[in-house]
Amino acid sequence: MAKGCIAATKYFLFLFNLIFFIFGATIMGFGLWILLDNQSLIAVLQDSSMVLKVVSYILIGVGSFSMLLGFLGCLGAIYEIRCLLGLYFTCLLLILLAQVAAAILIYFQRDLLRKEANEIVSQVVVNYPGQNKTAEQAWDYLQTTMQCCGWNGRLDWDANHMIRNSSLELYPCSCHNASLPPPNVADSGFCEASSNDWPIYETGCLENVGSWLFTNYGIILGICLGVAVIELLGMILSMGLCKSVHQEDYTKVPKY
């Protein structure tokens, strides 16, 4: 009976670590996406925000460490190595505590992060088109796909140097409302309007991005809770297997 429990725990722990390895690869992939992406809001922010770059490196590090941890957990489970199981439990506990600390930090610093994002996007809009091609391309892509204009609204573009100093009535082409004429416009740069009533989307991207996050918050929360539950299961299974292996070794010791 005891051997059956040990075998079941061992293979459950192996399966868990396989899942944990996949989660680690996903986290590392997300960090690489933040670092290398050039067609979303992330690209606009990370090009000017050292904080976001640091976050991407942290995610890559955590993902790589999680993959290594999953591999070590598989070895400890299959070969019943107590020191690996103990190390595995300790590392999982530290990761879980770090995740909780990061979540608390993000929650209490949310206003600062929102302010920093607003300042970064404002600079992109004011200087467009400038030397920062990657951020500008990403911003055009965001406005086109999210069907929005400016961060808080179209008035953000009134501060743009090109629009303010031009004798023509210019507006950003990526803000163009597809349901309004003209039917075909460029995806970037400036287009000329016939009047000061621009044929653009009136909603700011902040509102649309917030709506997207609110719509998908259940998925995001579910993924976070799923990771936490898997980590807790791994801790419980590793300690259970470690204890069982210890008891089995104790019974094998000859008594005099």
UniProtKB/TrEMBL annotation:
Entry similarity comment: Belongs to the tetraspanin (TM4SF) family.
InterPro entries per record: Tetraspanin/Peripherin, Tetraspanin_animals, Tetraspanin_CS, Tetraspanin_EC2_sf
Location(s), subcellular: Membrane
One GO CC term on file: plasma membrane
Topological relation to the membrane, as annotated: Multi-pass membrane protein
PROSITE patterns to which the protein is assigned, alphabetical: TM4_1
CDD domains: CD37_CD82_like_LEL
Entries under PANTHER family matching the protein: CD82 ANTIGEN, TETRASPANIN
Pfam families, alphabetized: Tetraspanin
UniProt-recorded name of the protein: Tetraspanin
Keywords: Membrane, Transmembrane, Transmembrane helix
Name of encoding gene: LOC107561677
Membrane-traversing stretches: 12-36, 56-78, 85-108, 217-242
Keyword Transmembrane helix among record annotations: yes
Chief location bin: membrane
Highest taxon of source: Eukaryota
